[in-house]
Design a protein that fits this description.
The complex is a heterodimer of chains A (687) and B (80). Chain A is α/β, with parallel strands linked by helices. Chain A has 29 helices and ten strands. The chains are: A alpha/beta (687), B alpha+beta (80). At the A-B interface, helix 3, helix 11, helix 16 and strand 10 of A face helix 1 and strand 4 of B.
């Protein structure tokens, strides 16, 4: 175990003032238990936000029992190169927000790759402590780490921990507080090993350090970090340093000289320098087990889950099970419970309002507007929560990475990568969690494109619409119509994907360079925490939009232009607006105000298309007198494809911003209109 | 030979890493560097991408990208 205070020689001797809040950044690879450690460190004292400008989650919290601390959980990354938005965000956080100290978590069972990030963090010259996680797994397989030796070689405190078992975490906190308070920076940064390969890389780095020293100080960049990045050719850092032409020439000359001597190009030489040192650390400090139980187990599971013939059937089975549990069993049960609860609350409020003799219009607003509207949105909550529960189980266990691996070839044909399959499948259930789940996608481009495609996957809320029209118009062909609609959604989605690929998102999907972690039993604690976060998030953010929207729609349906309450909704503002829009739907054979009203209200929630139709037409017989069979088909096609409901649009707005959300609404309506029109023309000819 | 020509269970030592810019940097950052030993574990059910073992962990790579990495096959070591 590491003793505090061995490598604290470089301490400035000027501790931070007692009262100052100590800020920490938690940095580590993906799949190394970072989230588990963060939850251990902060308990429930955390909140999730966004890094400015990008949809990368920024989780912050306070270390348990130390109220004058603030810790930020940076995204899981492999390097400090500006490869993905996550990497750039993490790097800028450390450089610009200068946390008082870095807590670097590394996976003991995968030490070599994990230390690569550590090497780069050390160059950033911030006080740092290394937490070697999953020690229990390593020692359980007969491995060990000489912690003192590793401290000596890395020049920072190293603490063995097991975040899942909560061991070593207290010691980690003690070390972290100490180095942050006393500002003890890494002792060792010179990993370029003078002796190796005639010291070519060593000489190059030090020459570049001399060359750019003044510039780095002016740009407030850690010298050693800036030097190795400019040798790699990092544009962001080069821009910040503002070297003059002469210096740039010198830099190129030094680098070329190194490439010649070393026999490797610049990027490879720097990466090799880091890995060579890691190899030394690993050889001297780590006693690796031959093959861990966990790895053997993973290989056995993968025999089935990524097996040539079994992978896809198993995947279909697992997804079917998740859907069934979400939309039929667990989600549906909570949904029913919630509905009853809301019903009860509505009745009680209704009676109370009557008793108090409240103005009937306000009464109507509260019951008919707020309670009904917000109630219908609340009914999404159990579905979102259940879906996320299962998804986080699949994600944390390591299965989602396998799904991406198996599906990549297929998704690549439409310009996406394997990871996009999951949000799109969830889209068949509900667009809201589908859009929310795109956060796990590694690139901004894939994320945007996937979000734009999810509305094409027919969500379950549209099922009542299909059922209503099948009952009225196609009672004998229910199966064919339903299947046809789902397939149509997919086909139009694929066509849209080709369009997006060619126009909006040129170029290839991100290269599929991904880690397949060992399967692990997900921790219930982390899963529950995630589910709770999603629920809170959903309620807070979607609620505000939906509350306003429901009140607005209620108002439009209840009042006429003179702001008088109307008895018959045919006189309401809504009916008038629908009357104006009606001609737009005339070419589809749907130019009728009641149909238009139902489609507009479908924007609130797809189910309400049916409930509005039922109110306005009394019985199903009524609607058959108004529209033809071909129009009914066109209406179904339109319902399948037009703008997603407010809840979905709100979540799209959260991920992509106002402009994109508005574009989605308009675009989906246009696509739906064109498809419905084509259908109507063809169907009219045939019939 | 290039990495995509490796057969399941075979290993090679990386000679050069091709490609350019950010993608290449990402290869290097993930430990795909000249001199590293790499083993093909399996192919995805549809034949692409490939699952490889390097530095003691499993990495996926598409065949197109693997083509940019040249290796020397390691003949004498029996894996598994």
């Amino acid at each position: 175990m590491g003793e505090p205070g061995i490598h604290h020689a470089k301490g400035s001797g000027h501790p931070l003032p007692e009262k100052q809040t100590l800020t920490f950044a938690l940095v580590g690879n993906q799949n190394c238990g970072k989230t588990t450690l963060f939850n251990r460190l902060t308990g429930s004292n955390q909140h999730v936000g966004n890094f400015p400008g990008v949809t990368v989650d920024r989780k912050e919290g306070t270390i348990l029992g130390h109220s004058n601390t603030a810790i930020t959980d940076l995204p899981g990354i492999y390097s400090m190169s500006p490869y993905s938005s996550e990497e750039l965000v993490s790097r800028n956080f450390v450089l610009e927000e200068s946390p008082n100290a870095i807590i670097n978590i590394v996976d003991a069972t995968n030490i070599e790759r994990n230390l690569y990030l550590t090497m780069q963090l050390l160059e950033m010259d911030r006080p740092m402590v290394v937490a070697v996680n999953m020690m229990d797994e390593l020692t359980g397989n007969g491995g060990s780490i000489d912690i003192n030796k590793m401290e000596a070689m890395l020049g920072v405190p190293v603490v063995p921990i097991s975040a899942a078992k909560n061991s070593g975490v207290d010691e980690l906190i003690t070390h972290a507080l100490h180095i942050a308070h006393y500002q003890e920076k890494p002792v060792e940064q010179d990993f370029c090993c003078q002796g190796e390969h005639n010291g070519a890389v060593h000489r190059c780095i030090h020459a570049v350090c001399n060359l750019i020293e003044d510039h780095a100080t002016r740009a407030r960049l850690p010298l050693r970090f800036a030097a190795s990045k400019v040798i790699e050719g990092d544009r962001h850092i080069l821009d910040k340093l503002k070297l003059d032409e002469n210096e740039l020439e010198m830099l190129e000359h030094i680098t070329l000289q190194m490439e010649k001597e070393r026999g490797l190009d610049r990027s490879a030489a720097i990466a090799d320098m880091r890995f060579s040192y890691i190899k030394k650390v690993s050889e001297e400090c780590v006693n690796k087990p031959k093959e861990s139980k966990e790895h053997i187990r993973s290989r056995e599971i993968d025999r089935v889950l990524t097996g040539k013939y079994t992978a896809i059937p198993v995947f279909v089975g697992i997804m079917a099970l998740v859907f069934c549990m979400t939309f039929n069993v667990i989600g549906a049960w909570f949904h029913g419970l919630l509905e009853q609860g809301i019903g009860l609350l509505t009745t009680v409020t209704d009676q109370a309002l009557t008793k108090a003799g409240v103005n009937p219009v306000i009464h109507e607003l509260v019951i008919g507007g707020v309670f009904q509207g917000v109630g219908s949105v609340l009914s999404f909550l159990p579905i979102v929560v259940t879906m996320f529960f299962f998804l986080s189980l699949l994600e944390d266990s390591g299965y989602i990475a396998r799904v991406a691996f198996c599906m990549d070839k297929l998704l690549r044909k439409i310009g996406l990568s394997g990871r996009s399959i999951v949000p799109m499948l969830i889209g068949f259930g509900c667009t809201v969690p589908a859009v929310m789940s795109t956060r796990t996608l590694p690139s901004e481009r894939d994320r945007k494109m996937t979000i734009l495609l999810t509305p094409f996957m027919s969500c379950t809320a549209k099922l009542p619409i299909y059922a209503f029209f099948v009952g009225a118009f196609f009672p004998k062909h229910g199966g064919v119509v339903m299947t046809g609609l789902y397939l149509l959604g997919i086909v139009v989605g694929i066509l849209a994907a080709f369009l997006y690929k060619g126009v909006l998102f040129r170029g290839e999907a991100v290269p599929f360079v991904m880690e397949l972690p060992n399967y692990r039993l997900p921790s219930l604690r982390s899963t529950m925490q995630l589910v709770w976060e999603k629920a809170k998030d959903f309620l807070q953010k979607a609620f505000s939009v939906i509350l306003i929207a429901t009140i607005l729609v209620w108002f439009l349906q209840r009042f006429d232009f003179h702001l008088n309450l109307v008895e018959d909704s045919a006189q309401s503002i809504m009916a008038t607006i629908a009357g104006v829009i009606a001609p737009v739907f005339a070419p589809l054979g749907l130019g009728e105000w009641r149909i238009c009203t139902s489609l507009i209200s479908g924007f609130m929630a797809k189910e309400s298309v049916v409930s509005v139709l039922e109110v306005l037409f009394d019985a199903q017989g009524g609607i058959q007198a108004v529209i033809s069979t071909a129009s009914a088909g066109a209406l179904l096609v339109f319902s399948l494809l037009y703008a997603p409901c407010v809840a979905a649009v709100a979540s799209i707005k959260r991920e992509l911003g106002k402009k994109w959300a508005l574009a989605v609404v308009v675009w989906q309506c246009v696509v739906a209109w064109i498809a419905a029109f084509l259908f109507y023309v063809i169907a009219s000819f045939v019939m | 030979m290039t990495l995509n020509e490796l057969k399941i269970g075979e290993s090679g030592r990386i000679d050069t890493v091709g490609g350019a810019g950010a993608l290449r940097q990402h290869f290097l950052d993930m430990g795909v560097i000249p001199g590293a030993e790499i083993t093909l574990v399996k192919l995805a059910p549809m034949g692409d991408p490939m699952e490889l073992r390097i530095h003691g962990y499993e990495l996926t790579l598409r065949l197109d990208d693997a083509e940019k990495i040249s290796i020397t096959k390691i003949e004498n070591i029996e894996h598994r």
